[in-house]
Amino acid sequence: MKRPKGVLLVGGTGSRLYPLTTVVNKHLLPVYDKPLVYYSLSTIMLAGAREIAIVTAPPDRRLFAELLGDGRSLGIDLTYVEQPTASGIGDGLARCADFLGRDRCVMVLGDNLFHGAGFGMSLGDVGSDEAAIIFAYTVADPRPYAVIELGHGGEPLQIVEKPELPTSHWVVPGLYFLPPGAASLAARLPLSARGESEITDLNRRYLERGKLEVIRANRGSMWTDVGAPDRLFIASTYVESIARRQGQCIACPEEIAFRRGWIDQAQLAVLGAAAPDSLYGDYLRSIAHRYGGDQ
After folding, report:
1. Which helix (H) or strand (E) holds 234?
2. Would you report the helix, strand and coil content of the chain in percent, each value rounded to 5?
3. N or C terminus: which one in the chain shows less Cβ crowding within 10 Å?
4. Residue ranges of the domains in the chain?
């Protein structure tokens, strides 16, 4: 099966993180040792996408371009797509119609952090030319999320956005595998009561057609959206604990590119040398030295 293209959404105002986001896009805020956007970019790369559209507000496009460039240093191809207003996830996807063409895609919300069983290298095996595929993750308080009700066999029964009285503790995180034509379908969605094109409405369209599949996340997996100060702190603490105890860097795009064979040892060493005085640079150099040309 042909690899998917990627869509990474980094728009939004980050109002819940005020005043941290007064002058900085929330996806550029640090989560321990790297910008938040590195985590969602890594998820897309783990899904196998090498052609990736980054959807951003016009004023922030330059900042992301300065940080990530055109992607060639990682063996990927980055395209920047502008979303003039915060009109919802569906609108962001619809603006990628020309970029996606007839290809399926993996779409990730830029403020989502995934790690652990089910959210790792196995993402490259997920995808379908026929169905939309979403994940289900259990949380103690599902009310702030899109809640999905599952049948006895794990099949999706209904999806409700931010219900006051949830019928399930399963919620939908910001990771979606969408079949060809999803952007065109998103462009035809009516606006919700809050004036946005909702991803939940798109998923509901696939559910109504019998074309929605759900993967339940393993108990050992970790997901959080980093949209509020407490979650920013929790995410940073989690990443730091893994790095300190296991010596592993969560969501390192350079390492992912190297292990997938998109860049070689020499290219990885160059990336490490570009950050000579940081722990992150030390980690890149250690990977290049440890594994040599064996990927």
Report:
1. helix 229-246
2. 35, 20, 40
3. N
4. 5-130+173-263
Residues 6 or more apart whose CB falls under 8 angstroms from that of 176 comprise 106, 107, 108, 132, 133, 134, 199, 203
Angle at 250 between CA 244 and CA 252, to 5 degrees: 125
Across the chain, mean pLDDT equals: 93
pLDDT of residue 205: 97
As given in the structure block, the two tokens for residue 162 are 């931010």
Helices and strands (H and E) in the chain: how many:
10, 14
Q: Is 266 helix (H, G, I), strand (E, B) or coil?
A: helix
Inform me whether the pLDDT recorded for 127 exceeds 80. Answer: no
Q: Does the pTM exceed 0.85?
A: yes
> Where do the DSSP E strands lie in the chain?
5-9, 30-31, 34-35, 51-56, 77-82, 105-109, 112-115, 132-138, 146-150, 156-161, 170-171, 175-178, 212-216, 222-225
- Domain covering 5-130+173-263 in this structure, CATH number: 3.90.550.10
**Which pair of structure tokens corresponds to residue 161?**
């956005």
Tell me phi and psi for residue 41, to 5 degrees: -60, -40
